[in-house]
Design brief:
This protein is α+β, with helices and mostly antiparallel strands and about 700 residues long. The protein folds into six domains: about 55 residues, Helix Hairpins (Orthogonal Bundle), CATH 1.10.287.610; about 250 residues, DNA ligase/mRNA capping enzyme (D-amino Acid Aminotransferase, Chain A, domain 1, 2-Layer Sandwich); about 100 residues, OB fold (Dihydrolipoamide Acetyltransferase, E2P) (Beta Barrel), CATH 2.40.50; about 70 residues, DNA polymerase, domain 1, CATH 1.10.150; about 90 residues, DNA polymerase, domain 1, CATH 1.10.150.20; about 80 residues, BRCT domain (Rossmann fold). It has 23 helices and 27 strands. The protein binds 2-(butylsulfanyl)adenosine. It comes from Streptomyces monashensis.
């Protein structure tokens, strides 16, 4: 897949693009948290390259194409040999073109390639003097880099002492594994800092930070081994002659970590097909790797081929990066949802403008906690960096401040637990529902008692919290075992309210199966699905006897939903038994089980009603005999009378019941020429089914 380049139309646009790229590269190397994503940067640079090819006399000195990105600062340490960058390819065709140009340059096909992951971190040169690690230098502008020797001892895979007392420079990538990144962010936020947006930002920031109160580990992978001025001449000569794969083996023997220790070790291949097969293998393993990679590096393996190919000012001609799609993208934060976990932790989750990252569409990403949102000054509508690595839940980085329009809105924090309505314990950074683990119970009981489920009047959330806190109720069935004395023992429960609640509970036991099923809160069985299931199977026993195939006979239940419903129902078998034992109704009035083949061979088909075969939409306020019915009860009525209820008008709709103040649905029905009925006309049509 090739991403389109940024089109540059004139010299002014070119100058602007160069400026943007320079700024982006500077932010990137400074470990900034609001840099453009890799794809955007690549598109920009390719746009610049294309324009420069047509205007070679107008190339600006700052252009990212002419020099190694970064930029040396005063006092930097010169590199013995320039630390170059790599050119990129994005497709098998581009890779084939590169191998062809390499072959032309060296006068023959490349004998052997080495293929290894392109580690997503920062390049570093580690100097060993007689086996001891003496200096660490960043790439800087490729000619000279920053001395970061203070980080010695914090980088796994880069030993303080080599297995042999040799004087060499090891080059490679410093990065944070996913676990190291999580750890670094935990430590950093515990010290009041802002979490790093990405493992690479985290490695860059950590590597350069000098006087931290804490240290966080990083990991090194070597990809180069070269002599220093003081290297013993025999060794220096040998290093110049060894193939890349042999150098990597030697680095390993000396005790330096290389990709050989990973699930994607460097290999050699003698054909383009072999290289591409390995590219596919590495790409397929990317999501499972414990560290980030952003491509695959392919090098001419033999020293002679490398020498014959030579290097440009920016990149060697004997190596190329086969880039994989970026794992970071910028998108907009649309909303923040607050979800309550099993232990009562209330965690914010960002709803994003969908963005494709590495083949998956991302719509949600983790936000850490309210304090973190405040620290980062995130707002709704902000452009944010989203990072997705492997199977880890995508996370939101910093807002991209310069993309703000002023229309961004503050993120509102919940005042009460969004699940059960109790107070929130905000004493720690991670907010928690005051009900803790009981929160789920409070929420599920409140839901079960709701108007569209068991409709238990007098059992609002506050009452549920009281019952749970008093230890009187530990599951739904316990409600039906409550005694008058128990209720009277509760605060603010007088005789009348206790009796009323007991009467409401007795009434709730007679609710149809569809509502009992809905009250159980099985995932994927909301109000209308519960009705469909109950009408299809008629009894709870039939539902429980159904396997995934049988469940799929219910309209709207597919191959994915069916097994999960079966499994969840099996899980709550004891609860269902307890409810049945408490006298809760487990049948659906008027429904007949599917193809109930009687002993005598006759098949019972569901009774037809006045709405059989019809899809009915209700809109506006109901009047007359239907006045008291909630929308859910209207839908129940439609289905009892043999019809299908729907909430939106389409060509499939057969009848629209339009009450007072019916608006757009009525208008749409008129447009489509769909039959309309007043509430009274409809009541007459289904009179036999009104209970
Ligand atoms: S070879 C002269 N091998 O990618 C050859 N680089 O985009 C240059 N990188 O600066 C380096 N993994 O920081 C090489 N296996 C690998 C690499 C690798 C990551 C980085 C390196 C380089 C950048 C170029």
């Amino acid at each position: 897949m090739t991403t389109p380049v940024v089109q540059i139309v004139d010299a002014a646009a070119y100058a602007q693009a160069v400026e943007d790229a320079v700024k982006a590269a500077a932010a990137y190397y400074a470990g900034g948290t609001s840099t453009p994503d890799d794809d955007a940067y690549d598109r920009l640079v390719r746009g610049i390259t294309a324009w420069e090819a047509d205007h070679p006399d107008q190339v600006l000195p700052d252009s990212p194409t002419g020099k190694v990105a970064g930029g040396a600062a005063e006092g930097d340490v010169p590199h013995t040999v320039a630390m170059l960058s790599l050119d990129n390819v994005f497709s098998p065709e581009q890779f084939a073109a590169w191998t062809a140009s390499l072959a032309r340059r060296i006068g023959h096909e490349t004998e052997r390639f080495s293929v290894e992951p392109k580690l997503d971190g920062l390049a570093i040169a580690a100097r060993y003097t007689q086996g001891r690690l003496t200096r660490l230098i960043t790439r800087g502008d490729g000619i000279a880099g920053e001395d970061v020797s203070h980080a010695i001892g914090t980088i796994e895979g880069l030993p303080d002492e080599l297995a042999e007392p040799v004087t060499v420079e090891v080059r490679g990538e410093v990065l944070m594994t996913t676990a190291q990144f999580e750890h670094a962010n935990a430590v950093r936020t515990a010290h009041g800092g802002q979490p790093f947006a990405t493992p690479r930002n985290a490695a860059a920031g950590t590597l350069r930070a000098k006087d931290r109160l804490y240290t966080v580990p990083m990991t090194f992978f070597g990809y180069g081994l070269l002599p220093l001025a003081d290297t013993e001449p025999v060794l220096a000569a040998r290093l110049g002659e060894l193939a890349h794969s042999d150098l990597m083996a030697l680095a390993g023997e000396l005790g330096v970590n290389t990709t050989a220790s990973t699930a994607v070790p460097g290999i050699t291949a003698t054909t383009t097909e072999g290289v591409l097969a390995r590219v596919r293998e590495i790409a397929a393993l990317r999501a499972e790797l414990p560290f980030g990679i952003d491509g695959i590096v392919i090098k001419a393996d033999l020293a002679a081929d490398q020498q014959a190919a030579g290097s440009g000012s920016r990149a060697p001609r004997w190596a190329i990066a086969y880039k994989l799609p970026a794992v970071e993208k910028i998108t907009r934060l649309l909303e923040v949802e607050w979800n309550v976990g099993r232990t009562g932790i209330i965690a914010p989750r960002g709803v994003l403008e969908p963005v494709e990252i590495d083949g998956s569409t991302i719509t949600y990403a983790t936000l850490h906690n309210p304090a973190d949102i405040t620290r980062r000054d995130l707002r709704l509508g902000d452009h944010v960096m989203v990072h997705r690595a492997g199977d880890v839940i995508p996370r939101i980085g910093a807002p991209v401040a310069h993309l703000r329009t002023g229309a961004e809105q503050p993120i509102e924090f919940p005042q009460v637990c969004p699940r059960c309505g109790s107070g929130i314990d905000t004493s720690e950074e991670r907010w928690r529902c005051e009900q803790g683990r009981n929160c789920h119970l409070v929420a599920s009981l409140s839901y079960a008692a709701g108007r569209d489920q068991l409709d238990i009047e007098g059992l609002g959330t506050t009452r549920v919290i009281q019952l749970v806190e008093a230890g009187l109720v530990t599951d739904l069935a316990d409600l039906f075992a409550l005694t008058r004395d128990q209720l009277l023992s509760l605060e603010r429960m007088a005789e009348t309210s206790s009796d009323n609640l007991l009467a409401a509970l007795a009434q709730a036991k007679t609710q149809p199966l569809s509502r009992v099923l809905c009250a159980l809160g099985v995932r994927g069985t909301g109000r209308s699905m519960s009705r469909r299931i109950a009408r299809h199977f008629a009894t709870m026993d039939n539902i429980r006897a159904a396997d995934a195939d049988a469940l799929q006979e219910v309209e709207g239940i597919g191959a994915e939903k069916a097994p999960s419903i079966v499994a969840e129902l099996a899980e709550i078998t004891p609860l269902i038994d307890k409810l049945a034992a408490a006298g809760v109704n487990m049948t659906e009035p008027g429904a007949t089980p599917p193809s109930a083949v009687a002993d005598n061979g006759t098949v019972t088909v569901p009774a037809a009603g006045p709405l059989t075969g019809m899809t009915v939409v209700v809109t506006g306020a109901m009047t007359g005999p239907l006045e008291q019915l909630s929308r859910n009860q209207m839908n129940e009525l439609i289905e009892r009378a043999g019809g299908r209820s729907s909430s939106s008008v389409s060509k499939k709709t057969t009848l629209v019941v339009a009450g007072d103040n019916a608006g757009s649905k009525r208008a749409k029905a008129e447009d489509l020429g769909i039959r309309l009925a007043t509430p009274d006309e409809f009541a007459a049509l289904v009179a036999d089914y009104l209970t």
